[in-house]
Amino acid sequence: MDPIHVLRGHLGDVQSLSYLSEDQLYAGDSNGDLRLWDLASCRTDYTARLHDANSGILHLACLPEYGILLSQGRDGCVKLWAAGRTGTLDRPTPLQEIRTGSFNFCRCAVWAPGLVSQWRLPRPQAFRPAAAAGPADSLVAGPAGDPRDLLVACAGHDPADVNIWRPAEAPSIAARLRLSEGACTGADIRHGMCMALAFLSPSPALQHWSHPEKGVGTGEISRSDLEPLGEQGGSTSGRGNGDSSGIYSSSGNEGAASDPRFIVVGYEDGVVALWDLRNPGRPLGSLRTHTEPVMCLDVRARVQGRSTGNGRTALGAGRGNGNAAELYDLVSGSADDQISCCEVRPGGPQPLTLAKKLQLRENGTADVRIRSDGKLLACGCWDGRVRLFSVRRREPLAVLKYHRSHVTAVAFSPETQKLASASRDGTIALWSVYSSTSDAT
């Protein structure tokens, strides 16, 4: 099978993809350049330099309803940009910048509360900084939610840590996941660097939740529900080089916070761990899924036979208290020659279980993505191939051959589910595969 279109124009390795709409695709490369591609004409609509050429763009996350584009470079910075209706950036400097202190290859994960779906709401006007605004006021609320309530998970200055940030409150850290010294016994060992991250998104079942005082809502964050917990149990926020605890109070009601409760972390030693953000000193469970470092993962909530949500850029609405779905599909790729398919049950006696390992012909997977209907899995591999698998049957479906070097990123379009693949050869291939939802069952 040949790609339906090939986009050429990047002068460096294309490292990240994020759809703005069905006909517009953001791409970031190793030179730090952003390109907005018009997929109807296969031409570049807009270019900008977001990060230094020495660091490049490691990851992009487009939040259309917020008018926000997030970029991450290997310069240790995560930047939030104001994006206009056409996708162009409204100003040459970012709205917010998080200096994470992390310079490895771990892509950040983003949680955007209050959205029923990434693609069902109209895109508002871009968010502009308020006049004479301070750091906490430089993002202005919009109809889809308050961008000040975005959460970004990144590897920390200590690469074994995971830091959770509210961009508007940087350099304060909302939470830090770090295995405590007292927990380092038995099966609990340090797993090396954090390599991949994904929030567990709640399912549509709790996208309209009931609150005893507020009635029916949309799942947006209420700051009164949150009580940051300091090192000694006080309500103090952790600083960039200090110790920080969870974004939930240990004495708080389990269903009182609308922030995400769970996050999955892949580590250097091949272990995948499930963390409860209320207990940042020890994971709920861990599982060795690979013999080499975990390079990528994706997770989606399985509800009534289908999967919903988004792991890398979790945009589901709801209370996010872990009861939104009983079961999640988790897929991870590694430097080894296998794809691991796991089941995640946050409330079960075994939070992580290995369902099946899919064998590859060559070592190395750079990116995995589960399609929004939860049926199709796309894997971007180091041998230049894109491999497709059935999520339900956990069987291979097809191998897409075009790229001459490592495939670095894959992404599905929001409506027709066209697949885009990016490569170190500087090209982006567009594929029409299994467009019928029954084809990949």
From TrEMBL:
WD repeats sit at 7-47, 400-441
Comp. bias regions, Polar residues: 244-253
Regions of biased composition (Gly residues) lie at 231-243
Q: Which Gene3D superfamilies match?
A: YVTN repeat-like/Quinoprotein amine dehydrogenase (2.130.10.10)
Identify the keywords attached in UniProt to this record, alphabetized.
Answer: Repeat, WD repeat
Q: Which Pfam families match?
A: WD40 (PF00400)
Spell out the SUPFAM superfamilies in the cross-references: WD40 repeat-like (SSF50978)
Q: Where is this region: Disordered?
A: 209-255
Protein name (Swiss-Prot/TrEMBL): Uncharacterized protein
Organism from which the protein derives: Volvox reticuliferus
